[in-house]
Amino acid sequence: MDRMAPTFLFIAALLCMSCSESSAAPDGGMDGSIEPDSGEPTLTCNGHEGLGEIEGFLADNPNEVVSIIFENYITHAQTASTFESSGLIDYVYAHEAGEPWPTLGALIDAGTRLLVFQEKLPEEAEYPWLMRIWDHAWETPFSAATPEDLSCDVGRGNPENPLFLLNHFLTGLGGDPALAEMVNYNPFFIDRARECEDMDSALPNFVAVDFYDIGDLFEVVDALNGV
Predict the structure, then answer these.
(1) What are the domain boundaries of the chain?
(2) Which pLDDT score, from 0 to 100, does residue 94 have?
């Protein structure tokens, strides 16, 4: 794909972040006495190690662009704090809904190679780089029990939005490699992607799967990008 091409396709990392609070037990003092608990809870957020891995990838690969879509269950301040502590804050890009998207080359040249979306955001833009995904994108339905249930219909988001998320996975009680084996291989995978591209006149910008290392995901992405 030409680095200045006007459209782009990412394999998006769909992440779930949560935090929990706990109070420390009273500590023993230097003289053996019991120090009272300060009463300040300790906040522990999961996902920090994964963000550190993404930071390492971006640092080692200066010509790569990464997009994250969070299924978020923590405050936006907590999310921002984890980005600051992981170093990812140096890469984030803030986009205003309704404005043309930059090319991949422009993002690379500007050093803003990380796009961060969340499913839920308040009306006020507390952190402009935390973007509400449905202000920018739309998706196909995310609930399918069988391969035949996968469709190109509009799920969440407005189909007039410029970005298109193709959901391509089967849903059960949890992630199941056996379900991925049923849909992650060609020709079924690429045929459905092309069908949705033709039906909706939109190139998938994001492709969401379960178990990316099962099947032909990367071949499908390359085919859609024409490489």
Answers:
(1) 7-17+41-135, 138-227
(2) 95
